Amino acid sequence: MGSGAASAGWRFVVGTAGALILAVNGAQAQESDGGRDGGQVRDVAPAGKGVVMDYGPFLSNTLGREAGEAFDYFAIRGIAIRLGREAAVGFDTETLRWAVAWKGSFLDLSRTHLTSYKGDGPALVDGGVVFRTSNGPGWAVEGDFSEPRSNAVGTLPRGRAHYKGLFRHGRQVVLHYTVGGTTVYELPGFEREDGSEAFTRTLRVGKRARALSLLLWEKSADLPVDSISMAAGGAVARAGGEQGLSIGVFGAEGNPWRGGEGRLEAVGDRRIELHLAAGDEPLLFKVVMAPALTLRGQTLAAGLRRFSDVQDPGALRSGGPALWPETLTVRGRRGLGTGAYVVDTIAVPEENPWRSWMRLTGHDFFSDGRAAVCTWNGDVWLVSGIDEGLGQVKWKRFAAGLYEPLGLKIVNDVVHVRGRDQITRLRDLNGDGEADHYENFNNDGYVAPSYHAFAMGLDADAEGNFYYTRCGHRADPEIALTGAMFKVPKGGGRESVVAAGFRAPNGLSVGPEGQLTTSDNQGNWTPTSRINLVKPGGFYGYVPHSGREEAPDDYDPPICWLPMAIDNSSGGQVWVTSDRWGPLEGGLLHTSYGRCSLFFVMMEEVNGAVQGGVVQLPLGFNSGMMRGRFHPVDGQLYLSGLKGWQTSAALDAGFQRVRFTGQPLRLPVGLRVKSDGVEIEFSEPLDPESATDEQNYAVERWNYIWWEKYGSPEFSVEHPGQEGRDVVSIRSVRMGDDPRRVFLRLRDMRPVMQMRIRFRIKAADGGTISREIYSTVNAMPK
Could you write out the DSSP letters of every residue in 176-200? Predict the structure, then answer.
């Protein structure tokens, strides 16, 4: 997405992980080589944007803290959960562990995309760390806490542990996951009682075919621990006398523990674990983790028992009080103009009670015509009242706290959102217009903390299988499942790689016959932007993520290359599936995020090679458009986008409708390569005199270099190695029996990476047709 110099990949390093850090201690770990992307200039947002936003009771993001010139990562795929006004916990959905717990403010987002147009770091814990754990399994089956993951990166094997999602009940959050096939619901909490305070974990653990173990606490270098001791009602980790952490477990009846179902165990002086025996009956219990200083003057059991009331997390799974009950009404604006298409604007409620920063990154429609829209800052909004006049458009906040969503797809009237961490399926369980269930539909892909490591777009085929792309730029080449297009089965099962070798593929499309497309943006190994028709197993140029054991010496060519002048940062594509949108029905559209424009893609297949060109529609948009969908009721095209990384966008958010007026289009709609020239098909009949005048056309061509450097100069075709374009002389122009087609006979027709055809001619009705086509010739007809 956008430009930037090359940088080394990242490594997952947690530094002095596993330390016990009391709020009164304030020590900061310095041991970490998790680096920041170097040499990047951060584009700071307008004052307050994203900083003052109410993100709700949780926020999914990479969690860490600054450690010298690097970052100390607590969790790469984390969820920060607010526990009242003064405490929070970071849960790692990859390892199912409490990665960090802290007191103070919630999060410092100053290094993220959430408060800037281009961030460079994770969400920082804003407060004093009370305790943390290292990057590793938070649960074990039969006591086996060994690390099963390659490079300790990614999710644990599903059969061992799997994050299933969360339920929101008002401001309470219930985590849902499985361990060895056992279902677990967990309610994090923070409580105060008579001057004492404690972090709490209330768990409902289902029947267990095998014994399970839960990591509760782990020693670190942040605060040295003198001893761990077991006592009646719990365990104590002591550091320097009275400092330390006291841990107790209480059953639903308020007892320290009900019987033989479980036991606390100190593993040397480094860990405290809770072991649960196999059993056919579910367990409901509460773990209390209290700083020892707050229990002064009391026995351990008595001090902890004041927090022993147990609330069943399973009772909080049907929806709770609404957090965002207001519906906001805005007035849109119909576009003016005499062309075949005009642009209408759906107003976005940038001023809203939660100060949400409305930067739109995806949308789709329900069967009744309502829309769901996601934002870069983690929201999903429902939009109704989208009618012809747009006079009473209503926006309702539906979900919040998602990890940088950049794609949204509605299947069977259920919203699915592609964030950096997972595809989340959102359900409103109690009918109040807000999502209560944030289901993890699929989280197979790896997450990198680099600011470029986005997961982009989301679409589905006719069978219900999902597709998305993941950025390879600045992601460690040793980490699999990056820089590729992925397929996720309709049931959310294991994802698979469709094709590899993508640098920054911002968006994709699935055609009516299952065709797959994506774009890519200029950079290393990508000489300029490109539009790809993706074939399974293909390689599309970005060598660090080729998916091959050996570096390839060639790549699958695109449909068309796009020079920076017309598309410096590509968006996604959308197929024209509506029969109410004029003469482009059945074709492919491409959005330019960087130039805020829309292109029609003309394609053909020659000797098995797909190739073509683009023509820009004479339309302008108020933001960097990325996602397009056709409305199921009015049949018109709706585009959404934002202002973020490099773009000429005027507004932070754009939601606009491209409406067909029925007027003449006056554009090329077809392009075909011949052995001695090109044939152009137009949407309307042409004036023969004007259309056959050679002086009304100009043709240039040039090549690029595929190399590891950023981008490529333009190089002569006739004089390889010499920079510049070649002017191609036009030998003749003629028309055949079809008055909409014209053939340009060109000198020395040959394959070329980039050709520009400019023309200014007249239609048969006297209207002017003045455009330019940028095309690619991959193969010549035999």
Answer: EEEETTEEEEEEEEEEEETTEEEEE
